[in-house]
Amino acid sequence: MAWLLLGILALLALGVGLAWQPMFVTFWVRGHTLTWVMGFQVHWLWWHFGDDWLIPQTPAAHASGGMSFDPSLVKDGLWVVSWYRSFLQRAWSSVRFTRCDCHATIGLGEASDTALAIGAISALLGWWLVHRILPQAGTTRPSVKVEPNWNQADFHFHLATQFWFRPSFMTVAALHSLVAEIRDGVRPHKLRRVQHGHIPGGTLGSSSHRIAHENRDGIHQGHD
Does residue 6 sit within a domain? Predict the structure, then answer.
């Protein structure tokens, strides 16, 4: 019995140790006009994995065996979306950036249009940098550059980021978000109850009947 307990404790310690090891992710997007390439690389301990793909893909890549759409799944999907947003908010705090390079070249043919586009994109990238990247960058200094092409219509974009996180933090964030959504969030069965006319403390149907009855009594009293 003692050996079994020691074995279980050893497996738990090993699992915690592995989950504490950081996972490094490299993500990039680069392209020109209508040709784009997106890819990623994941490195965790001795495990390496990565892929890249063209955007947009060829028509053959979009072909599938056919799918049916069930409108009833939308209600349950709302709960999943709510949980996913909560999970991202919690998980983002555990992400640490070690690299973030964003370079863009924009030209719209007209100097005034190009200047307006440069200003809008610079403002958008500035907000993203200040509110999303810098708080998680530590001592890393991101490189962001937006350049105009005054001579012709042109659009080049290159984004390369590298960040790391601990799988244990992601697991805790997922469980925390799940518990919070079950406790306080909009659950699928509540959505179904509301759709069928049920609300806490009564029903939509009984409320409407009560209002109609009160209006009818008011009309009769007015005639009297």
Answer: no
Count of alpha carbons within 13 Å of 114, Cβ hemisphere only?
18
- β-partners of residue 103 are 145, 158
27 and 110 co-located in one domain = yes
Does some domain include residue 206? yes
Task: Please report whether residue 1 resides in a domain.
Answer: no
Instruction: Identify whether residues 138 and 197 lie together within a single domain.
Output: no
pTM: 0.62
**Same domain as 132, residue 52:** yes
Nearest to 144 by CA among 131, 162, 126, 127: 126
Q: Is 222 exposed, middle or buried (0-12, 13-18, 19+ CB in 10 A)?
A: exposed
pLDDT of residue 192: 47
What does the block give as tokens for 56? 């947009």
- Whether residue 133 is found in the same domain as residue 151: yes
Other CB atoms within 10 Å distance of the CB of residue 200: 8
Q: Considering the domain boundaries, does residue 13 fall inside one?
A: no
Q: What is the pLDDT of residue 147?
A: 92
Give residue 214's domain range.
187-224
Low-confidence ranges of the chain (pLDDT < 70): 1, 13-17, 56-77, 185-224
Q: In the numeric block, which tokens belong to residue 184?
A: 């306080």
**What's residue 97's pLDDT?**
92
How confident is the model at residue 71, as a pLDDT?
Answer: 61
For residue 119, what pLDDT is reported? Answer: 92
